[in-house]
Fold this sequence. Notes:
- By secondary structure, the chain is an alpha/beta fold.
- The chain has helices spanning 35-42, 56-59, 62-67, 78-84, 86-91, 164-177, 194-200, 202-205, and strands at 3-9, 14-21, 24-28, 46-50, 71-74, 105-106, 112-115, 118-124, 133-137, 142-146, 149-150, 153-154, 183-186, 192-193.
- A hairpin with a 5-residue loop joins strand 13 and strand 14 (192-193).
- The protein is globular.
- Its cofactor is Zn(2+).
Amino acid sequence: xxxxxxxxxxxxxxxxxxxxxxxxxxxxxxxxxxxxxxxxxxxxxxxxxxxxxxxxxxxxxxxxxxxxxxxxxxxxxxxxxxxxxxxxxxxxxxxxxxxxxxxxxxxxxxxxxxxxxxxxxxxxxxxxxxxxxxxxxxxxxxxxxxxxxxxxxxxxxxxxxxxxxxxxxxxxxxxxxxxxxxxxxxxxxxxxxxxxxxxxxxxxxxxxx
Length: 209
């Protein structure tokens, strides 16, 4: 990986991450068409779009990227989740219509996504959404956590398709399996570390040992 940049897009300020290496770029959670300008600036020739989950703010620019030639990597449930949230996305101005995309690279539990110099291990982490995944790069000690964990908080589960019990299991898994020094790059807000969240995030503090 030669570069890793972050854009915070839309009224919900979704974090869109772009990793680049040797003309290949990985876009994680494309929240707005502004990402196209960044891809041009980075000289991206081949583009992979990875989706942590199908909520409208995280898939708002999937279709323009696909039109540019990008391939889509996501959990197989992501298109159905995107369709379920499309009406709300239109009302909030993120979408003009239901996003239509297929999954070219299936990101399910235990698989690995190789793109832009990264080797990302896929962890299935439902709760906030039934298709939610975390992309973990063990070598670089970083994880793209989507809306699973934020600095001091977690993704909502009191929404359509949310599952509080699944969220607790997913949080416990991350706390158990990832090293505390792992950088967490969330879908909203500033980055943090797992160690910090274990100490200060009330939702992780109350997990059963």
